[in-house]
Design a protein that fits this description.
Chain lengths: 346, 346, 346, 346
C-alpha cells in the first residue's frame, strides 16, 4: 500500500481525490489537510464521504507530513502551491500538483497571467505537464506532475489529432467552453449562489481567462508554431461537466473519412478518450463521474471548418481523476485503477 | 380594440402570445386554435393563464376565423403555416407568422433546408422579415411579417453594427449559441424529458441547423456579400433564454472606443436592445420574460478578434414578444405596449 | 403620486419591491437604502432592474429619509427592523415591515424565538398582521403592517376555511412546507451555493423554525384555541415558490361537496386566492411571479383526513407582492394595482 | 460467474441494473431484453454504458432465455410482470421482480389498487418482500423476491424501529414524500418534459398512490395492527432521490436518548442504513448513486411527535441497488458486493 497525503482536501477537487482514492486498492490515505476545517473529520465537511470518517483534517505542516507519504497530492490555491510543491519535491517525494503553479513552463508567462513571480524556477523545469495522452512516457519517469487545468484538458484533447496532422489553420482557432459550477470551487460567494446561477447562463473572463496561456502553450508545442487562440468560458447551471466546442478552419479539403481515421488512430488505445461515431456529439451527462473525454467530430463542408466537441467531467478528467491517472502511471500501477466507474445517468 | 386571432395557441410560443396579448390594452383575442386541444379552455392547457378562461381552443377553420380578426398570429409548425398565411394574407388580413415559412426570400433555399417546396412564392415576396432593428420602416407598411427565428434574432443583433460598419472579416464568423429547452417546443419527446436534459449539455444540429440560412441571408444583406457562417446550437438545462457568443476577426486594428461608439450609436434609440458597458457580459437570467436583447462587447486584442455576446429570452424577443412588437409597429401602436415588463429575477 | 421609500433594497425581497413598485402607476420610489451597496445604482446590484437606473442606494439615515415618503417599506433583517419601524411609525408615517419584528403579538413569544427582547411594545400593539384575507378591514385603517412570513402565508391560507368552519381536529395538524432557495435571501453562504443546493433536497429547522409561532398565533386566533402544530420546512432546488402540504384529521365525516363549498365560499371574492377544482393540485410553477395563492383540496376518506396543498411565490405573495397589496389597501388604491401580472411559464 | 438476464433493460431501473451489475465480480449478464429497443446495442440506448457495448437488446422470449441464466431480474411494467415472473419461477429459476406485481400479499388488495386480477396466486404466496432490513433471513432461502417500491423503502425504514418498539400512535401517521423525476420512468410524456418539471414542484396522487397499500401492509405487519396512513408523493425537479418526512405522534413521553438508542440499535449492523447524529437531517444529494438509506430523527417535544426524515436514491436503494442486494443475499454473495460506491458530490 502506497501512503499518500492530500494537501487541501476540503474543496471539490479535494473531495473528489478522497472519493476516488478511497476506492483505490493500492493506496492508503494517511493524512488530509485543510486550514479552515482542521480538527473536523472528513464526513463533517463532506457528509457523502462517510467511509472516510477515520480521517481528520489537519493544518498543512509540511515537515510533519513529510514522512507520512510517498505521494503528495496538492489541491491548494494557485500561488500557495508553489512553495509546498517545491518543499515536497526537494525532499524526493512524488508530487502531483492540481494548481496552475507548475503548468506554464515560462515563468514570465506565469507572472503575466497570475500576477506573482515564480520563486522555484529550477523545480518548475522538472515538472511534467500531466496530460497522459501527450506525455505518458515522461509522466512515467517524473516526480513532479503539473496536473492540467479543466478547460485545457478538453481543449487540447479536442485539437491534438488535428494539430499533429496539420489538418487545420492554427492561427484562427476558436475554443468556446461551457463549465459546470463546481469548476468555481467550493466557496461562499454570491456569484455562485444558487439563485444567481440557476436558470442563468453567461460568458465570463472573455479573452482574459488564465487557462488561455496554458492552452496556447500546449497547442503551440503540438503544431510547432507559437499560436494564440480565442478562448471563452461560460458558466453552466449544472454541477459537473465541461463541454468545449472548437472551430478550426481546414487547411485544405479533406474527407470526413480521413479526419475520422486520424482521430480514431490517435485515440484508439487511449483508455480515457472515446471518439464518437461521426455525427454523434457528446453530452456532459454521459461522462459525469468518469475519467472519460468524449470527442465528437463534424466537418462543416459549407465553410470548410473542422468542428470538434469534447466533454469531460471537470472534477474527474478535468482534475482529480486525471491526477489519479497520473499517479497510477508514475507509480507503475495499472492506469485505469480506481477510475473505471461508469457514469451515473440520469 | 383590435381583434386578433392566434392560430396554434397550445405550444410555448402560443402560450406566450396569450400571456403578452392578455395584458395589451389595445387588442382583444377573439379566437385561439389548436387541433389537439380543441374544446378545452386555455387554463386546462396552461393553468398559469387563468385570466384566459373565457377562451376555448377551436380547430383551425380558416373560413370561420376570417371575419373575427384584423390581425392573425400564426404559431403553427413549419410547412403547415404556408397555406394558412397565404389564405389570411390574400383576404387582406394582417398576418404575423412565427414559423419559418416566409423568412427565406429564396424559395430554393427554403426547399433545400426544409425539404418541401414553397407553394406561395408571390405571397413570399410580400413578406417582410420582422426584425424591427433593421426593417422597422418596412414593417410599418407591411401586411405580412415573417417573424425571425430565435437564434437568428440573437445572432443578427450581435453582428449588425459590426457588419454595417465593415469592422470584421465577414468570411470567418463563428456563432456559438446556447438555448433553453423551451426552444424545442412543448411536446412529449424523450429527448426533452427532464432526466435527459437536466444536468446535461450538448451541441446539436452542428453545421446543419435550419436557422443557418436565415442567419446567412440577413448577414449577407447587411454586408453586401454572400457569406456563410459556422453556427452551432447547444441545449441548455434552463427553461428560457439564448446566449450567443460570436467571434469575428477584425478587418484592421480599431480601438475599443470606436467599437463601443458604433454599437451605442446604432442601438441607443432601440427600445429593446441594450448595449452593456464594455467589459460587462449579458446573462440570460437578466432578460428572462422580457423583450430585451442585451449585448456585451470584447475586443480581444491578442487575436484581434471582436467577440460579441448577446442574450435574449427565446420565447419573447426570440418569438412572441417580437411578434407583438411587430404588430405594434404595423398597427401604429406605441412599440413598447405590453412589452415593458421587467425581468423576473431570481 | 405617493412617495415611498424602500429600506433594505439590495436583497431579493427588496429587489421584488423595486420590480413591482416600478410598475405601479400611483407611486414614486424616492429612495432606496442599502448599507453595503450604498453609492451603487440599482442596476449595478440588480442588472435586471435597468429601469431603476435613476435610483442610487444610500445608507439608511432615518432622519434624512423621513420627509421623502408617506409610505416606508422595510425589508431589513429581523432585529434591525424594530427600531426603524418604531421611528417612522412614531413620526406618523405609514410603515410596512417585511421583517418578523412586529408579527408576534406577544413580546415574550418574540423573545423566546428570536432571542432578543422587543423594545417597542406599545408600537407592537398597533401593528396589524398583514394577511388581507383575514384582516383586510383592519389593514385599511392601519398605519403599521407586519407583513406575514412566507411559510405562514401558505399555511394559514390553506387552513383558514377549515378552522373557521370547525372542520378539523386542530390539535393534530401537520404542515410540511417546501421552499425555493430565494427564501434564504441573497447572500454569500456555502449552504446556499449552487453545487450544494442543486440536485439536493433536505429538511431544515425541523420543529424549530421561527415561522412556527407565527403560524400557531394566527391558527389559534382562527379556531379560538391555543394550538401547536408540526411545521417542517424543506429546501427546494428552484428559485421561487413554496408548496405547503397540510394534513388535518376531520372532526367528523363530511362530504367532499361540503368542503369544496366552504373553501369556495370563503375565497370566491378574494382577488389573490384561487381554489382549484377538486382533485387538482397546485404547482409552484403556475404561480411564479404572481401574487396568487393556489389551493388544492383532498378529503382522504380512507383516513378521514383533510389534505390541503397550497402554492405561492415566496417573494411575491410570500413577501413583496403581499406588501404592495397591503399598501394598496391601506392607501385606498385598487387592491390589484401592479399585482395583476400573469405567471411566467415555462 | 453466475449468469443473469435482465428483462426490461431500457428504462432507468434497467439502466441501473446494467450499471451496477457491470461492476459485479461474480456475475455475468448474458442477455438484456427490450421490445422497443430490440436489435440495438446497450450504448445506443444508454450512451453512458459504453462498457456494455457487447450486449444487444432482444425481445423478451421466455423460452429462449430460460437456459441462459440462473437469476432473472425483471424490470417490466406492472401487470406485464405477473406472467414472466411465474414462468421463470416455475422453471426453478431465481427471480427478482422490480415491478409491484408480487409485493402485495393479498390478491384482492392488488386487484383493488392495480385494477387487474392476480393470475398466479400460488406463486404470489412464495414471494418474499425484498427489504433485507426486515426479511434478510427469508430472502436467503427465497427464490422469488418482490423488490420493494421506492417510496415504501424510504417510509418503512423510517418507521421500522418506532413501530417495533411501540413508540408511536400507529393510527395517525403522516408520510410526506418527495421524489426525483427518474421515479416516473424513462418515457416520452409531456408531464415529465423538462420545461414542465424544471422550477416546478407539486403533489400528485394525493391519497391514491399505489404505493399506499404496500406501505400499509408492511407497517401493519410491523406493529401487529391493521393500519392506514396518509401518504402523499411530490415531484422534485432533480434526477434522483426520495426524501420522506414522517410524522408520528408519540404514545407517551420518551427521551431523545431513548429514541436514538432504539434506532441505532436496530440499524447499527445494517450495511445500508445510516442513522445520522441527532439533529442532523439527510439530503438526497448525499446518497446519490448509493444504496444507502440515511435516517434523521427529531422528537418535537412541543407536540410530542416523532419526526423521521429518510433519504434514498430511488433508482438504487429504491430499486436496482436493492435488487442486487437481494440477489447477493439470495446467492450467498457478500451483501455489499458491487454496492459500495460512494455518492457523487456535488
Amino acid at each position: 500500500m502506497i501512503p499518500v497525503v492530500i494537501c487541501g482536501g476540503s474543496g471539490y477537487t479535494g473531495g473528489e481525490l478522497l472519493r476516488i482514492l478511497s476506492g483505490h486498492p493500492n493506496i492508503e490515505i494517511t493524512a488530509v489537510t485543510s486550514e479552515k476545517s482542521a480538527g473536523k473529520s472528513v464526513p463533517e465537511v463532506f457528509p457523502h464521504l462517510h467511509e472516510c470518517r477515520h480521517l481528520v483534517y489537519e493544518p498543512l505542516k509540511k515537515e510533519d507530513l513529510l514522512d507520512r507519504a510517498e505521494v503528495f497530492f496538492l489541491a491548494l490555491p494557485h500561488g500557495t502551491s508553489q512553495d509546498a510543491v517545491n518543499f515536497f519535491f526537494s525532499k524526493n517525494k512524488n508530487v502531483i500538483d492540481l494548481s496552475a503553479d507548475y503548468r506554464l513552463t515560462d515563468p514570465k508567462v506565469y507572472e503575466e497571467w497570475y500576477g506573482i513571480p515564480h520563486n522555484f524556477v529550477s523545480t518548475l523545469r522538472r515538472a511534467v505537464y500531466g496530460l497522459p495522452e501527450i506525455y505518458r512516457k515522461r509522466i512515467k519517469r517524473a516526480r513532479l506532475i503539473a496536473n492540467p487545468g479543466c478547460f485545457p484538458t478538453g481543449a487540447i484533447l479536442g485539437l491534438l489529432p488535428a494539430l499533429k496532422n496539420e489538418l487545420v489553420d492554427v492561427f484562427s482557432v476558436v475554443i468556446d467552453s461551457k463549465s459546470g459550477t463546481s469548476g468555481a470551487g467550493r466557496r461562499a460567494d454570491l456569484s455562485v449562489s444558487y439563485c444567481e446561477v440557476n436558470e442563468g447562463f453567461k460568458a465570463y473572463g472573455v479573452g482574459t481567462h488564465r487557462h488561455t496561456p496554458e492552452i496556447e502553450q500546449e497547442l503551440s508545442l503540438l503544431c510547432g508554431k507559437k499560436i494564440r487562440v480565442n478562448f471563452t468560458p461560460h458558466l453552466l447551471p449544472v454541477d459537473r461537466g465541461i463541454l468545449t466546442t472548437i472551430y478550426a478552419p481546414m487547411k485544405k479539403r479533406r474527407s470526413v473519412g480521413d479526419i475520422v481515421k486520424i482521430y480514431d488512430g490517435i485515440y484508439k488505445k487511449e483508455p480515457f478518450v472515446r471518439v464518437l461515431e461521426y455525427g454523434m456529439y457528446p453530452n456532459i451527462k454521459n461522462v459525469c463521474g468518469t475519467n472519460i473525454c468524449e470527442v465528437g467530430l463534424k466537418l462543416n463542408e459549407r465553410t470548410n471548418t473542422l468542428i470538434v466537441v469534447t466533454a469531460i467531467d471537470n472534477l474527474v478528467k478535468g482534475a482529480s481523476g486525471q491526477a489519479v491517472q497520473n499517479m497510477n502511471i508514475m507509480m507503475g500501477i495499472e492506469e485505469k485503477t480506481a477510475l473505471d466507474t461508469l457514469a451515473l445517468f440520469p
